[in-house]
Design a protein that fits this description.
Binding site for L-methionine: 392-394, 445, 560
Number of helices: 26
Cofactor: Zn(2+)
Distance between the termini: 75 Å
EC number: 2.1.1.14
Keywords: Amino-acid biosynthesis, Metal-binding, Methionine biosynthesis, Methyltransferase, Transferase, Zinc
Structural class: alpha/beta
Oligomer: single chain
Shape: globular
Family: Belongs to the vitamin-B12 independent methionine synthase family.
Strand content: 5-15%
């Protein structure tokens, strides 16, 4: 019982489950074929765990695939359920909706079936369930049989994930944990129960509640992001209970400092006893890449500094063996050499970049003129109608487009052929937007693989993987770049494509950039300096790009900060410091442009209401923001009297669903916005970029969006 993994990536080392899901959604394969891919993947993961010597590991309704996927994606007649971020990660979850008369019933045997699957393969696993109180606290109001079945199937341990325990909980919420586990106690009799927490420190009141829960055998803590919890363990951990010590980082890809972790573990062993200490990951490995073995082209020095999910399993087991007196000296020695190499490598440090970032601290980098004066200057230049229409940036990435990029990367086509193909695609996207009569255009980003990777590939201090995929939501995976050193911009990154696109139209063409905070939060970030220092370095690189775009005649520049809210610490006491440097980083990027240059930003899928004043403080000219899938929660801020003077475009339809909204539905949404926002600041746009959709969905949805904007312009004009 010496080692444990909180969770493991589901998509497969080569995204096998992603492709199986999308094939099923497109009607090209059956439910049985999808199930087989998922079953085979689970079997290979269990075997890998078992072979590595892990003693506990992860496994994961009768509602059926049709209902299950309609809840997540929507269908022709029903919108998708609300989706938001899982704590401060880039993984998303569907928000459960609970009405006052809801009756809970056992609808899915997934956990039991998968436990039995593993058992049939000779692997004894620990089923993982979201804990009852976390489930309730993450649900929203809408307009215990599984334990018995798992016990009957032979499970000896069950893991309940209760990450809400790391939040700032009220006393009545903590009381809910005590009541819930007291209620479960008779069902749990005869089982070993692990309650797992992660992503931050557990506050003292929550620690006391947690470690006093009835019928619980062991407690899991994130000792990477929650190092302060160590003090509580040393002073208050109950005797006779198992401690699952999360010393191997489940959120990043750096190799563990095994010697340092062993020191921590030995100190804990003295507190809880040798037989009660279990070495674990800090959280599920779902948030990291799958296996370094799939990265043959990665620079060998940088590769020696890394550990993906498969390597973290080996680290956990190596630490457990060392604790048991079976230390693998060669493995520990090789790990120590890699740690030393990373600390001393000249490729990590750039003194000029460090100096430029340090010099930023003397100013708040605000634009010289206030936003209302800037909007007036911009309107004189752009001459836009009221309720101007735009899109967020990307257009559908077709199979043909992906083929062109792939062939160029593999040097199968020349640079000249590549540029010709991409320009043809841009021209097609420009013409489509002009035909639809959209006011401010985008070039569609056909040259880009991913909104962060594309920029990282052109900045120094970044490394890239071939198969370092991480699940974001549904079948959507991202491949975060690795920031290993100081960041700078060797040459312009987007100017060529933006100016080419602007030359194809007389309408304003947005220059499209990803902001520094989003590049930071959607990368695997170096852990040898504070995150804000890395963010300031990225901000300086983006600032150079913004100024080059302006010089090239681009008058509307969008700097996306999709992940600004995601990086917000989970505890309120830490919010102000993060928001200060994150908002400052954004302002650095555009503080030097003229009043007539319109700066847009975009944010997606998160709860923004608690940080609206920081969003205002970003001082962007226009912000587009997700709205349609969260019951227009964003609008409640403005109903409560928050004054917003810049341009704002709350999304009018959900692009993560294949459903096409009608003109009337979109007009109704815009009317709700007009009830709380001034007509002269409101923009009309989708929720997010259109990259993952098909043209057969995009064209009618945008037609309806433009028609709705025109309908309301006519109504507003006649009302005057």
């Amino acid at each position: 019982m010496a080692s444990h993994i909180v969770g493991y990536p589901r998509m497969g080392p080569k995204r096998e489950l992603k492709f199986a899901l999308e094939s099923f959604w497109d009607g090209k394969s059956s439910a049985e074929e999808l199930e087989k891919v998922a079953t085979d993947l689970r079997a290979s993961i269990w075997k890998q765990m078992s072979d590595a010597g892990i003693k506990y590991n992860w496994t994961g309704g009768e509602i059926g695939f049709s209902t299950y996927f309609s809840m997540a994606r929507g269908n022709a007649s029903v919108p998708a359920m609300e989706m938001t971020k899982w704590f401060d990660t880039n993984y998303h979850f569907i928000v459960p909706e609970l009405g006052p008369d809801v009756k809970f019933s056992y609808a899915s045997h997934k956990a039991v079936n998968e436990y039995k699957e593993a058992k049939a393969l000779g692997v004894d696993t620990v089923p993982v369930l979201v804990g009852p109180v976390t489930y309730l606290l993450l649900s929203k109001p809408a307009k215990g049989e599984v334990i018995a079945e798992l016990k009957a199937a032979g499970a000896s341990w069950i893991q309940f994930d209760e990450p809400t325990l790391v939040l700032d909980l009220e006393s009545h919420q903590l009381e809910a944990f005590t009541k819930a586990y007291a209620e479960l106690q008779s069902s749990l009799s005869g089982l070993n129960v692990l309650v797992e927490t992660y992503f931050a420190d557990v506050p003292a009141p929550a620690f006391k509640t947690l470690t006093s829960l009835s019928g619980v055998t062991g407690f899991g803590f994130d000792l990477v992001r929650g190092a302060k919890t160590l003090d509580l363990i040393k002073s208050e951990f109950p005797s006779g209970k198992y401690l699952f010590a999360g010393v191997v980082d489940g959120r990043n890809i750096w190799a563990n400092d095994l010697d340092a972790s062993l020191v921590t573990l030995k100190s804990l062993e003295g507190i809880v006893g040798k037989d009660k200490l279990v070495v674990s990951t800090s959280c599920s490995l779902l948030h990291t890449a799958v296996d370094l073995v799939n990265e043959p082209k990665l620079d060998s020095e940088i590769k020696s500094w890394l550990a993906f999910a498969a390597q973290k399993v080996v680290e956990v087991n190596a630490l457990a063996k060392a604790l048991a007196g079976q230390k693998d000296e060669a493995f520990f020695s090789s790990n120590a050499a890699a740690q030393a190499s990373r600390k001393s490598s000249p490729r990590v440090t750039n003194e000029a970049v460090q100096k430029a970032a340090a010099a930023l601290k003397g100013s708040d980098h605000r634009r010289a003129t206030n936003v209302s004066a800037r909007l007036d200057a911009q309107q004189k230049k752009l001459n836009l109608p009221i309720l101007p229409t735009t899109t967020i940036g990307s257009f559908p990435q077709t199979i043909e487009l992906r083929r062109v990029r792939r062939e160029y990367k593999a040097k199968k086509i020349s640079e000249e052929e590549y540029i010709k193909s991409i320009k043809e695609e841009i021209n097609k996207v420009v013409k489509l937007q002009e035909d639809l009569d959209i006011d401010v255009l985008v070039h569609g980003e056909p040259e880009r693989n991913d909104m962060v990777e594309y920029f990282g590939e052109q900045l120094s201090g970044f490394a890239f993987t071939a198969n370092g995929w991480v699940q974001s939501y549904g079948s959507r995976c991202v491949k975060p770049p690795i920031i290993y050193g100081d960041v700078s911009r060797p040459k312009p990154m987007t100017v060529f494509w933006s100016t080419a696109a602007q030359s194809m139209t007389k309408r304003p063409m947005k220059g499209m950039l990803t902001g520094p905070v989003t590049i930071l939060n959607w990368s695997f970030v170096r852990n040898d300096q504070p995150r804000f220092e890395t963010c300031y370095q990225i901000a300086l690189a983006i600032k150079e790009e913004v100024e080059d775009l302006e010089k090239a005649g681009i008058t509307v520049i969008q700097i996306d900060e999709a992940a600004l809210r995601e990086g917000l610490p989970l505890r309120k006491a830490e919010h102000a410091f993060y928001l200060d440097w994150a908002v400052h980083s954004f302002r650095i990027t555009n503080c030097g442009v003229h009043d007539t240059t319109q700066i847009h930003t975009h944010m997606c899928y998160s709860n923004f209401n608690d940080i609206i004043h920081s969003i205002i403080n970003m001082d962007a000219d226009v912000i587009t923001i997700e709205n349609s899938r969260s019951d227009e929660k964003l609008l409640s801020v403005f109903r409560e009297g928050v004054k917003y003077g810049a341009g704002i475009g709350p999304g009018v339809y959900d692009i993560h669903s294949p459903r096409i909204p009608s003109t009337e539905e979109i007009a109704d949404r815009i009317n709700k916005m007009l009830a709380v926002l001034e007509t002269n600041i409101l923009w009309v746009n989708p929720d997010c970029g259109l990259k993952t959709r098909k043209y057969t969905e995009v064209k009618p949805a945008l037609e309806n969006m433009v028609a709705a904007a025109k309908l309301l312009r006519t109504q507003l004009a006649s009302a005057k």
